[in-house]
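Thread amino acids onto this structure.
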């Protein structure tokens, strides 16, 4: 019997928002942070918010972005929770509307089975302000979870989806356990498990 747990990355496996952390380092924290807040609350289209935020980072050195992404803090309990899921036979995958520069690096530390996210376009070591990847739209996570379930032959009954923001809601119809982790109101109202303490080990009792 195959089992699957999909995690959001920003503010779920990682304590913060990747693009906001980058913005803070390059002096654009306030203007980018406002757009992030609107997107996570479901008050702005995710694709529009993602492309708008990425455009504001045009001209930033790519190597600086990589350093910031690799220094991001993991959420308390993230390592232990992934380990517990793996011990119970779950495939653990990251879906992130954020960036592979962060998810792939931290995914290796966490020991997950895969990550799907976006990438900053860069030329000659400088961000162009454009972005592309697997998780560009508000519905991308819901679309991808169905494809992963088909590939791994996992049922909805044996699927957990865990996130915090509006763009995680598209996964919930395909997961028996719908987890809002310190979630925004728009996600909490669609969840059947809510964890309000900033420690992912709260999920272990449900697996």
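Threaded sequence (207 positions):
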């Amino acid at each position: 019997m195959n089992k699957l747990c999909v995690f959001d990355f920003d503010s779920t496996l990682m304590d913060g928002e990747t693009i906001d952390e980058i913005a803070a380092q390059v002096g654009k924290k306030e203007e980018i942070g406002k757009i992030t807040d609107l997107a996570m609350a479901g008050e702005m289209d995710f694709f529009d918010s993602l492309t708008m935020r990425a455009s504001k980072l045009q001209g930033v050195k790519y190597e600086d972005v990589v350093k910031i992404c690799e220094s991001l803090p993991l959420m308390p309990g993230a390592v232990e929770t992934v380990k517990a899921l793996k011990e119970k036979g779950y495939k653990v995958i990251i879906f992130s509307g954020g960036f592979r520069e962060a998810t792939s690096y931290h995914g290796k530390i966490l020991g997950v089975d895969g990550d799907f996210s976006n990438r900053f376009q860069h030329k000659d070591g400088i961000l162009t302000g454009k972005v592309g990847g697997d998780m560009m739209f508000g519905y991308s996570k819901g679309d991808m979870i169905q494809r992963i379930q088909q590939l791994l032959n996992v049922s909805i009954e044996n699927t957990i989806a865990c996130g915090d923001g509006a763009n995680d809601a598209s996964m919930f119809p395909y997961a028996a356990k719908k987890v809002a982790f310190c979630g925004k109101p728009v996600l909490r109202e669609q969840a059947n498990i809510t964890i309000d303490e900033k420690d992912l080990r709260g999920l272990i009792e449900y697996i």
